[in-house]
Specification:
Length: 391
Amino acid sequence: MTPLDRTRAILSDLIAWPTVSSDSNLEMIAHIANLLSDLGARVDVMADDSGTKANLFATLGPEGDGGLVLSGHTDVVPVTDQEWTTDPFRAVERDGRIHGRGSCDMKGFIAAVLAMAPGFAAASLRRPLHLAFTYDEEVGCIGGRALVDQLKARGIRPAMAIVGEPTGMQVVEGHKGCCEYTVRFHGLEGHGSAPDRGVNALEYATAYVNRLLSLRPRLRERTPPDSRFDPPWTTINIGRLSGGVAHNVIASRAELDWEMRPVQDSDLQFVKREMARCCTDDLLPEMRATFPEAMIETLIIGEVPGLRPMPENDARDLVMALTGENDAGLVAYGTEAGLFQEMGMSVVICGPGHIEQAHKADEFVSISQLEKCLAFLGRLQDGLEQYGRRQ
Ligand SMILES: [Zn+2]
């Protein structure tokens, strides 16, 4: 069986597990764990607190620090309200493309890695090769964060990571972070004719929004001089504001959804500090003067760190050399890459398929993209065998 045929077979199995983020990925993880254990890999399956989802971390080659991680997420986005022409959870090949939910984002990459795993297992690798397959990436990189914590706890310190998100096999070295929050304002209901006797949650939510918007010019001023992002500064978006019941009732409840796309961690900390101060120093004392039980609750929906482009990046240089690409770009979507970077690893994103085909009806990965990825992984194997010989 050629590596491509193996990839086809494995991808078809992976697509058949409907690993939508809200559901369990355990069966698929168990299948991958078996496959890798049979090759002699040391496999760890690490379940989350609910016991319904798990990360998989496997190692081939020698033990120790300085390894290379190939990383992918096992969850997929839902197919609700999408008009598919075929069953989304059955791989269908036509016109040089494999269709199915997750084919592109990102079971295609995982299948290619697993198809090449026998080769990696048989090779005499000079440094550890780790495979990291996570849960709940699409809902805020929850599994990725847990994985990074697990690695830290075990003292495992890989040197590099390649995140196989669909980049069309282009080399990507950066993206902004994505931080999402829901803020709930709890005030005191009353008659609209006597605004001073209640605490209007909508009014305080509006004050909060205004404070957020006042930070925009300051974020622009903080733009790092070398920023290549578009736009180059950290952005804030007000996504949804709701609350209240009727014209003549003081709104006792309001809820705000907003997000920030930081270009640097210091901006994230700056905004969080300013908004915490806005609540504790300004809004809450005023609200509680009338109603001591008034509250502002901030829920962190997700804080996905950005991947900062670095002047020196071994992973980028390695992948550029192996793919023959001459430059590395930036993308607008978030990935788990920033989590690995926070661990001190050099990180790059490169994988088969195009993001335009992800998350949509009739999602697909083309055979030519899978072939490119397999060729890349083949050269990576040679590289991992060579590595160290010259030192
Ligand atoms: Zn993805």
